[in-house]
Predict the structure of superoxide dismutase.
Amino acid sequence: MTMQSTEANWLDRLEEWTEKCEQLVGSLDSRSDQLPDENIDTNEWKNRFQELRDKVGIYRDQLHEEGIADAAAKLDSLNAEAHQLKSEFTQVMERDRFNGLSDDNAYDASDEDRKSTTEVPIGGHTLPPLPYDYNALEPHINEEIMRLHHDSHHQGYVDGLNKAEKEMQKARKNGDFSLIRHWEDEAAFNGAGHYLHTIFWENMSPDGGGKPHGEIAKEIKQTFGDFNKFKEHFSKAAENVQAVGWAILVWSPRSHRTEILQAKKHQNLTQQDVIPLLVLDVWEHAYYLQYYNKRKDYIDAWWNVVCWNSVNQRFSEVRKVKWKPY
């Protein structure tokens, strides 16, 4: 995702916030009994939010047409103005007495938030950085594979997901769903690819390998009997994925236990309503440059870089999710 598109997404969020605030101020005219100060000029506040929204529109147009040489400085200025406006309005409304600027309407986009938001905007997915150097997993997975796999293949899934989300957004706006099957397929394939790869990088470490420890070790023993039985099952599942896909250790909120699944491609022939804990990519691009057609050798080597700390961290969170068992 380019910096220009990141800035445009941020401007969209800011514009949406100003619109909500304008609507909020407009609603106060019919809610005068809740105003802490009957002399509040709602028209003045509507005009101030409208002015900020107009500036957002001007900057967005410039970004689309020609770009802005000092975009960062201008966006910083918009960000500061938005925070100042929010602060003043909150003080006037005495937030403890009028909760109009609730979390649903609140604007809280700092500089850092603008770069990395807690909510990914539509078509705003980005490639996560590797948590280690490209050559850190050698000799088990070489640098060339890691560079190609991360920078090219994973980036492709990110780009494909963003494109699909934006096209479906267009379909909702113009009511034309003639290509919805295609874009839903693209969202499933690329979205699953993006999310699984994001877990995959975290599931490996140059300090990995060995047997699991902590709560995931207890869970593996309880469900699979012992680690060796689990490892054999997982390895065979990976080895026997037809064509391309994944082996995945998941937490099942419905069964209240872990399971080993396969996924063909990224999204096919697997279960829904489960949460991945440990994933192994057995697409050929994950190993062919080093192991050629010897998938089993790649799988055996991969166990030397499995990061059980990552698996334990995920397990400690996802095991909280439990549905009524059936």
In short: Strands lie at 245-252, 257-264, 275-281. The longest strand covers residues 245-252. Confidence is low (pLDDT under 50) at residues 95-117. The first helix runs from residue 3 to 28.
